[in-house]
Design brief:
Structural class of chain A: alpha/beta
Chains: A alpha/beta, B alpha/beta, C alpha+beta
Shape of chain A: globular
Strand order of the largest sheet of chain A: 6-7-8-3-9-10-12-11
Strand content of chain B: 15-25%
Distance between the termini of chain B: 27 Å
Oligomer: heterotrimer
Strand content of chain A: 15-25%
Low-confidence stretches of chain A: 346-353
Structural class of chain B: alpha/beta
Largest sheet of chain A: 8 strands, mixed
Helix content of chain A: 25-40%
Order of helices and strands of chain A: EEEHEEHEHHHEHEHEEHHHHEEH
Chain lengths: 353, 342, 379
């Protein structure tokens, strides 16, 4: 899945956080937030990274940007090994990869004018100052659909959608090649989401940007991504092109995710089989042995409890569609739903084990 | 006043002409400006809208939880089982709150008190409203946790909120809300902060509880997918008013108000060809400075340049049976009496 | 031509075309706090006295009249003994005799009238340190003496010394707090942002400084000052001693705030943009601590005033003849002196007023900055 025209390749990335106890902070365990993740983002394209809370997708993003130290692994951006860069070069490298955040409130410094927020990096990296900087900031504002007259206002004057646009303008200021979008529309209203998604798409077409798009909303991810990777408990469990993943999901977790997405269509809702998963996402400190999903999987068998499944192609899908499941060869689009329907459904009065 | 069994399918809650205004030093904020609907026992009414439309304030107004000053219910009635909650004295209202009408909030972490165990918080409500002894109350709390699907309830009941996951905390909130066997449950964005698979579990749980106890649910959400999953009846809110309401199948098949239509069109859908999403231009208006006429007109492709839409505010009129809408441009919109959704 | 993105509303969504920073919004809320505004006005008056001390004080602070030791306050009259009205107030001359304890008893001498003059001429000074002049707000012609608040043991006018004394007492708080604020912010910021060993060492240092009881630390530090310093140098020495103790408490709190501020997304964004660490600390992290820092500073100014007063009272601060409200109270320590000449307690009253005024302003600031209160309006 790492194509030749990848602008970013990630190889076996692991980020483990130590769990310390005691007066002398002994390490008694590790939170395996990211546990062996590999993928590539193709130039000018969007890779969607989807998963629920605790799956490690945000940690992957922050580790790639070296905002969090990685435990092992290799990240190559445009031919350069990011983890081997010394500090000075890393700072210069940061121009090329930027990030957009989820929370429109905390992602902007409330005490700086938005013009300063967007333009500060230009001064620091010696790209433009004074009148030239103001001109560039005005251009950026217009490009994201804001009025340059608002440059001297503070963030408290703007709505959530407008703040996200400011965040996008800030990311664009340094003319990056890759933008990591960390749940950029999750905190926005529905009618604003579509505005921002369209804006991101337009910018990608105009500027040839590549995106690593992280989200938990499958419909949004499918809409913007060329390829999608599904994460669970620190690992990638399925990887495929966008349409392929939704038409032909091979991993039981993906099927459960898809069936859980609330669809704004009551008829479809009632006719589609729902897979209600049992239990909660386990803690990344103590991931289950074998396949991390097996305690909740309707299809789990003996081998799933002992052997971690490799991420590889399977029957019934093209060769660039990978899934980490021992049983994926036998799984069709409705297999998991049928199996889940056969299991006794948990009723509210009976405790679920 | 004894609690009546909600076995009949009559109207349990009826809101009429509710107006809640906030007096700030920068003007009057008309957060809720003429809202009416009714809910029957055993049914779910969904109140849909985006942030700032007034749906949460509506729920808080029903529960009389609006902080006054600066807010105040300035008009309207809320008839619960025949009694008007708006004019009820606070001492009697306290017997209704938590007891007959319960509320579940969006953020389970901040809605649960972090310094008390979850069992303590459930027991507090039980002992207050039902007067059980400590032992029976704790037992009931354990049963409730099991009923909402929390594994190992006996241990969990003595744990603190931070030791539970988001989904479990929300279940605890639901258990607390159900502890006194309420007739109406108000759920304010109960699953917005949760993961998709957990959301599915919680919605499934709410559906089962409703079937078992004939519980009426007022569900507040911005997610149309959730509405399609669980609601029987839907009211769409914009800028403090209900602009359209209908049964769920009818609304999704036949949205009449341009705002509702815009909402549907701007949703990214699974398994649809990837293309530019449709957009509702502009942003939600500032409640201190609503536009004249129809509050949606500056963003409306139909009404933006229409003189009537710009100057006169349309009232809700029944365009089809059971499907009132407030829009001059809705097909079949004729002069007639104002209709509250029912 | 690039495709235009859909433009959202041209002005900010709340309909206002001006947008105030969170700081300005809080200051606006401050103006509504009545006690704080009273306190503020009192402080303005006191600081005007401080800046224009020479103009307001009838006499120089060391203008002695040994034969007027402990002269009681003289009241200006409008009517004389015969009932004549005079527009211009006047004071009588005074004469004294000794009683059996060899104390002076003062009596007013109606035969001598000294009229009060406004904009009288006195001894020369430089206004604001620049303009040479000798005009004062009011005074009496010599040989009359005006003791509106009485005289001290060497016959110096208490009112004049009070006004000159404000120069020390009112500025030591401001200056000392500014110094400790800057040090505390920087060290707290570095400690919280970098963490690790730096944080550990700095925090232990803060704790060490805070361990030692304040007054004794002051005395120890004072004794390290070399002898023979001019009064100005002593003044700055005292300021720096106070600031040296004050920064530690502030640094600890700032460090705690920095720990949580640094987790916010906008700080991450700054790191991701490749900004240098010092810039992130100073321009992004510390400004969010200002609301607390300003309140803490304004509430600590009274402590500095009291600290200087305490030092001067025990003779370890500003020395005679330069007046400070603290050293003016030295004689008031003796209860029998105080009973006979109660007007020497005036400096205590002024200290009280100044401290209360700062406390009111600090309270108002705290309410204005508090995001939870009705007054506070910060995002």
């Amino acid at each position: 899945m790492i194509a030749d025209d990848s602008i970013l390749t990630v190889n076996d990335l692991k980020t483990h956080f130590p769990v310390r106890r005691g007066v002398f902070s002994r390490t008694i365990g590790w939170v395996k937030a990211v546990d062996g993740v590999s993928f590539g983002v193709r130039r000018g394209r969007t890779l969607g990274l989807v998963g629920e809370s605790g799956c490690g997708k945000t940690t992957v993003a922050r580790t790639i940007l070296r905002l969090i130290p990685a435990t092992t692994g290799r990240v190559v951006f445009d031919g350069i090994d990011l983890f081997a860069l010394p500090r000075g070069q890393l700072r210069r490298m940061r121009r090329q990869i930027q990030i957009i955040f989820q929370d429109p409130v905390s992602s902007l410094n409330p005490r700086m004018t938005v013009g300063n927020i967007v333009g500060e990096a230009l001064t620091v990296h010696r790209i433009a100052r004074g009148a030239q900087r103001r001109k560039r900031v005005a251009e950026l504002f217009e490009r994201v659909g804001l009025s340059p007259a608002d440059m001297s206002c503070y963030p408290n004057a703007f709505s959530g959608g407008q703040r996200q646009r400011i965040g996008i303008a800030r990311a664009l200021a340094l003319e990056p090649k890759l933008i990591v979008c960390d749940e950029p529309v999750s905190a926005l209203d529905v009618s604003i989401q579509s505005q921002i998604l369209n804006l991101l798409k337009d910018l990608q077409d105009e500027l040839g940007l590549s995106y690593l798009f992280i989200a938990h909303n499958l419909a949004v991810v499918e809409h913007v991504s060329d390829e999608v990777a599904v994460m669970y408990l620190g690992k990638i469990v399925e990887f495929a092109a966008g349409d392929e993943l939704y038409a032909n999901p091979k991993h039981p977790y993906t099927q459960a995710l898809l069936s859980a997405v609330p669809q704004p269509d009551p008829q479809m809702r009632r006719s589609r089989r729902r897979i209600i998963l049992v239990g909660e996402i386990p803690s990344p400190v103590n991931p289950p042995a074998g396949c991390p999903f097996h305690p909740r999987c309707p299809m789990a068998e003996g081998i799933c409890r002992s052997e971690p499944p490799p991420l590889q192609p399977h029957d019934g899908a093209p060769s660039d569609h990978l899934a980490a499941c021992h049983l994926a060869d036998q799984i069709g689009p409705t297999t998991v739903a049928e199996r889940a329907a056969d299991l006794p459904t948990p009723t509210p009065s009976a405790p679920v084990s | 006043m004894g609690k009546q069994e909600a076995t009949r399918n009559g109207t349990l809650l009826q809101v009429q002409g509710l107006r809640t205004h906030f007096l700030t030093e920068l003007g009057v904020v008309r957060a809720v400006d003429g809202v009416g609907f009714s809910i029957a026992a055993g049914k779910t009414l969904a109140l849909v809208g985006e942030s700032g439309c007034g749906k949460s304030v509506t729920a808080l107004s029903i529960m009389r939880l609006i902080q006054s000053p600066p807010g105040q219910i300035v008009a309207g009635r809320v008839l619960f089982d025949g009694q008007n909650l708006v004019t009820m004295p606070e001492s009697r209202m306290r017997k209704v709150r938590g007891n007959r009408i319960a509320m579940v909030f969006q953020e389970p972490m901040t809605s649960l008190n972090p310094v008390y165990t979850v069992g303590n918080q459930i027991v507090e409500a039980i002992r207050l409203h039902q007067g059980l002894s400590k032992r029976s109350a704790w037992q009931r709390a354990e049963e409730l946790l099991a009923q909402v699907g929390i594994p190992e309830a006996a241990q969990r009941v003595r744990q603190y909120p931070h030791q539970l996951s988001g989904g479990q905390r929300q279940r605890v909130m639901i258990a607390m809300a159900l502890s006194c066997k309420p007739e109406l449950l108000i759920a304010d964005e109960p699953t917005t902060a949760l993961d998709v698979t957990i959301q599915a579990q919680i919605l499934e749980l709410l559906g089962q509880l409703q079937r078992q106890t004939n519980l009426a649910i007022l569900l507040i959400t911005h997610d149309l997918g959730v509405v399609a999953s669980v609601a029987h009846h839907v009211c769409v809110m914009y800028a403090g008013k209900i602009v359209e309401s209908a049964y769920v199948d009818e609304l999704f098949a036949n949205p009449l108000h341009p705002y509702t239509q815009g909402l549907f069109r701007s949703l990214p859908r699974l398994s649809e060809a990837k293309q530019r999403l449709e957009v509702i231009e502009g942003t939600v208006p500032d409640p201190r400075a609503f536009p004249s006429g129809c509050k949606f007109h500056p963003r409306c492709p139909l009404g933006r340049d229409d003189h009537r839409c710009q100057t006169v505010e349309p009232i809700r009129r029944e365009v089809k049976p059971g499907h009132p809408v407030a829009c001059w441009k809705a097909p079949g919109y004729q002069p007639g009496p104002e209709v509250d959704p029912s | 031509m690039s495709q235009q993105a859909e433009t959202v509303a041209a002005e900010p969504s709340n309909g206002q075309t001006e947008s105030l920073s969170p700081l300005r919004l809080s200051l606006r809320a401050l103006r509504r706090h009545r006690m704080a505004m009273h306190g503020f006005r009192i402080l303005v008056v006191l600081y005007v006295f401080t800046i224009f001390a020479d103009f307001f004080a009838p006499y120089h602070y060391d203008d002695q009249r040994r034969d007027h030791s402990y002269h009681p306050p003289l009241r200006p009259h409008f009517y004389d003994d015969e009932g004549n009205f005079s527009f211009r107030p006047f004071v009588y001359g005074s004469s004294y005799t000794f009683n059996e304890y060899y104390q002076r008893i003062y009596k007013q001498d109606p035969s001598k009238k000294y009229y009060l003059r406004f904009f009288a001429r006195g001894h020369k000074y430089r206004l604001l340190g620049l303009i040479p002049t000798d005009v004062r707000l009011f005074g009496v012609d010599t040989p009359g003496r005006l003791y509106l608040l009485g005289a001290d043991h060497v016959g110096r006018d208490v009112l004049s010394r009070l006004i000159y004394g404000s120069r020390v007492s009112m500025t030591v708080g401001l200056l000392g707090t500014s110094v400790s604020l800057i040090i505390g912010l920087l060290i707290g910021g570095i400690s919280g942002y970098y963490g690790g060993t730096i944080d550990l060492l700095i925090q232990r240092l803060c704790e060490l400084i805070m361990l030692i009881p304040g007054l004794y630390l002051l005395m120890i530090l004072y004794s390290t000052l070399p002898p023979g310093l001019s009064s100005v140098q002593v003044y700055f020495g005292v300021v720096f001693i106070l600031a040296f103790i004050g920064w530690a408490g502030l640094a600890r709190v700032i460090r705690g705030m920095v720990l949580s501020i640094a987790k916010q997304d906008f700080v991450t964004a700054a790191v991701a943009a490749g900004l240098p660490s010092w810039r992130i600390i100073v321009r992004h992290v510390l400004p969010s601590t200002l609301s607390y820092a300003i309140v803490a500073a304004s509430l600590s100014i009274p402590a500095y005033i009291l600290g200087e007063s305490a030092l001067s009272l025990i003779g370890m601060g500003i020395q005679d003849p330069v007046p400070s409200w603290g050293n003016m109270l030295q004689k008031a320590v003796n209860i029998s002196e105080l009973a006979q000449h109660p007007w020497i307690l005036w400096p205590g009253f002024f200290i009280f007023v100044a401290v209360m005024a700062f406390n009111f302003v600090g309270d108002g600031l705290r309410d204005a900055f508090d995001p939870g209160s009705v007054a506070g309006q910060q995002a």
